Amino acid sequence: MNNLISQLNYYFEYPFVRYAFVVGTLVALCSSLMGTTLVLKRYSFIGDGLSHVAFGAMAVASVCNLTNNTLLVMPVTIISAIFLLKGKQNSIIKGDAAIAMLSVGSLALGYMLLNVFSTSTNLSGDVCSTLFGSTSILTLKKEEVIVCLVLSVIVIFIFILFYNKIFAVTFDEDFAKASGVNTEKYNLLIAIVIAIIIVLGMNLVGSLLISALIVFPALSAMRIQKNFKAVVICSAVISVLCAVLGMLISIVYSTPVGSTIVSCDIAAFIICYFFERIFRFSR
Questions:
Q1: What is d(CA 220, CA 175) in angstroms, rounded to the nearest whole number?
Q2: What's the CATH fold of domain 2-276?
Q3: Distance CA 213, CA 210 (A)
Q4: Helix 210-224 vs helix 228-253: crossing angle, to nearest 10
Q5: Which of 117, 133, 175, 241 could make a disulfide contact with 205, Cβ separation 3.0–4.6 Å?
Q6: Which sequence spans correspond to the domains of the chain?
Q7: Where are the transmembrane segments (predicted)?
Q8: What is the pTM of this model?
């Protein structure tokens, strides 16, 4: 045990490790806040589709040699979120079909661009890092951490400020609309916030796994809590704990960061599921 603590203390002397934990905790917290809404509104696949769009945008940014990929990835992901939201409501191509087209198309085009135009000598490593977040979280710069901090504060502020409206739109959109709530505006706000979270989370778990970071904590919390506010709080606690535990395990045992965090989220879901079953059986 003393050796483990000494090892962790040694690693925490490096700034990039501290940066990784700050960003990981913030992304996990923001993901959990909107995850409950995403699951209850059946928008989970939108989150998955946006993560693939973010990969395609990241590929374009890499080919163009942009020094800050976020300048391209963020607007493209937000525009795609708006498109998917509108498509879910009144497009010729509706729901799952539009998400599948955008998702698969972005992955294919992104990978093709990286293969054809990339000058990197380690293309497979770059693609793997972008998809699964294997090393990118450990190469963060101070400026990127500050951007993540600012955007995370904005997401948390928006969620707290519009909590009642988000709650109303999540549970009964028709009633909220009848009560005078501009549901289209708040659905748009939810989609934009989700897009921001996905871009933030790409460095942590990669574009393929970020939707798991959004969905799993919410599903776990729903197993043991039934009140919306309690689910959100419980989801936040589970998400942050899994992120911290996943990063600690990754550092000590040299496992991929993103996959380790998602594995912790899966383990938390299994524990919550069995806890729910035992509680029901004992009643």
A1: 28
A2: ABC transporter involved in vitamin B12 uptake, BtuC (1.10.3470)
A3: 5
A4: 130
A5: 133
A6: 2-276
A7: 16-40, 69-85, 97-117, 147-168, 188-216, 228-251, 257-275
A8: 0.83
